[in-house]
Amino acid sequence: MPALLGFLIALSIALTGVGAGTLSVPLLMLVVGVPATEAVALGLTFSTAVKLLLAPAQIARGHVSWPVLRTLLTGALPGVLLGSLLLHQLADSLSLLNAALGLLLIATAASQILFHFRPSHPAESHQPAADDEIAHASAAHLAATSPHRRPWLLAALMLPVGAEVGFSSAGAGALGSAALLAFTTLVPAQVVGTDILFGAILSLAGSLLHGLPLALRSPLLPPMLLGGVVGSITGLLLATRLPRRPLRLALWLVLLTLGGQLLHSSLRSANLVRPHRPNYASRTRSATA
């Protein structure tokens, strides 16, 4: 099961630029029964590994805008620290923590569904196969002119995005790409490439702040990473053949359902994790025996 989850999450990242922390945390909690703090740690570490695996291909294709990336990180890195501190404060209030994670997923998914049905970005109607040509054709123009529309506002918006990454491991792919489309002149291929590297750096910062030792001790991480490698390669091969917008809409609908289920479970029970812990603990012992 962890290998399959890793495959599906990495496939989603490669095809849409979204899915690492957003999918991994609710799936680990609801399907595998992992406690919330460990699920966030695993999500951050897995996201770092998969996005760093995908990033070189995006850089080689010229799909990363370095000026925009610097603007994003200026606002987001302090936010990661704030989100990580908040997660530590709520670590002993598991029911509240689970409810907060569910609400974040619902809010993120709902906002992205609404964003999906806005008037299209001029270049968004192109298929991924055409994105490479558009990106390379506009490279000279973007080198001569600023790709920002409102750099100060983009940096300010990244503070809560970074906080969400530090708190729940989600947000960089979903909210980052939406902000890039709204506040830059990047074409979709560059939005995905810049956002993948942005998410990798934020996930690395979050995992170093609180999640890396916990994730490295988990027996779930190796099979997830193995599945993630296969999913990343598969996604890169399919990325030029499949349109991103319909895939993203399907992903947001799934996340809306997962967030609702997580919130419902946390409200119904004083502790969402308690019923799952014996099974998860027994699996951990058997895996390490």
Question: How far apart lie the N and C ends?
Answer: 19 Å
How much of the sequence lies in strands comes to: under 5%
In quaternary terms, these chains amount to single chain
Main beta sheet: strand number and arrangement?
none
- Number of alpha- plus pi-helical segments: 13
Spans with pLDDT under 50 lasting ≥5 residues? 121-145, 270-278
Gross geometry: globular
Helix content: over 70%
Radius of gyration: 18 Å
Strand-pairing-aware structural class: mainly alpha
Q: Element order, helices and strands?
A: HHHHHHHHHHHHH
* Quantity of strands, as a count: 0
Number of domains: 1
Overall pLDDT confidence: 74
Write a concise keyword list for the protein shown above.
single chain, 289 residues, mainly alpha, 0% strand
Characterise the protein shown here.
- By secondary structure, this protein is mostly helical.
- The protein has one domain.
- It is built from 13 helices and no strands.
- The protein has helices at residues 2-16, 20-32, 36-60, 66-90, 94-116, 128-137, 139-144, 151-168, 172-183, 188-216, 221-238, 244-268, 277-288.
- Helix 1 (2-16) packs antiparallel against helix 2, helix 4 (66-90) packs parallel to helix 8 and helix 8 (151-168) packs antiparallel against helix 9 (172-183).
- The chain is globular, with a radius of gyration of 18 Å.
- It starts with a helix and ends with a helix.
- The relative contact order is 0.23.
- The model is unreliable at 121-145 and 270-278 (pLDDT under 50).
